[in-house]
């Protein structure tokens, strides 16, 4: 009786994991070229739900539907630009991993370059300031130089200072 219960429990556990498995896309393309083109396009389009995965990597229902839509459009003979235009009209420019170069996306394209230039110029100003402060601090009076030389040699300096001087 225990063996039957154990086998029944194991079978139920196996069946429950099968229900959670996601179905694999089984779309049949008209040609291998269409399949290659459709997969390339689906790799370039972002899943609107996941936001950090392309249509191929995402397993969300929205991504699955969009993959099938891309596959069908490729088999219908639509061009890549027509498919991308359809997706951006429907979901906005967000679905593109590489946004177009236009007025509202200049900050995306030029922002990193501008930040890099600002960082380089700030670094150069900082280094220049440090060098000028370092050069000013090196200027010693002859008495201070003699005292420093004596300290470095290990003997006491012969130079006496007033209480007001450092």
Automatic annotation (TrEMBL):
GO MF entry, a single one: lyase activity
Transmembrane segments annotated in the record for this chain: 106-127
Signal sequence, start to end: 1-21
Domain CcmH/CycL/Ccl2/NrfF N-terminal: 11-152
Key words of the record: Heme, Iron, Lyase, Membrane, Metal-binding, Signal, Transmembrane, Transmembrane helix
Pfam families: CcmH
Family: Belongs to the CcmH/CycL/Ccl2/NrfF family.
Chain's role: Possible subunit of a heme lyase.
NCBIfam families cross-referenced by the UniProt entry: cyt_nit_nrfF
Descriptive protein name: Formate-dependent nitrite reductase complex subunit
Organism, as annotated: Shewanella jiangmenensis
Name of the coding gene: nrfF
């Amino acid at each position: 009786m225990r063996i039957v219960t154990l086998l029944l429990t194991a079978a139920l556990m196996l069946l429950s994991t099968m229900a959670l498995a996601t179905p694999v896309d089984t779309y049949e393309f008209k040609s291998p070229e269409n399949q290659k083109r459709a997969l390339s396009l689906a790799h370039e389009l972002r899943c609107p739900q996941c936001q950090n995965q392309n249509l191929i990597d995402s397993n969300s229902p929205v991504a699955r539907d969009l993959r099938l839509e891309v596959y069908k459009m490729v088999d219908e003979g639509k061009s890549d630009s027509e498919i991308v235009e359809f997706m951006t009209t429907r979901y906005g420019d967000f679905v593109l991993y590489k946004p177009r170069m236009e007025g509202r996306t200049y900050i995306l394209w030029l922002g990193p370059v501008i930040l890099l230039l600002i960082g380089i110029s700030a670094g150069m100003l900082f280094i220049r300031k440090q060098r000028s402060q370092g050069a000013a601090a090196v200027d010693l009076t002859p008495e201070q130089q003699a005292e420093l030389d004596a300290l470095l040699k290990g003997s006491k300096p012969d130079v006496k200072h007033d209480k007001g001087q450092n």
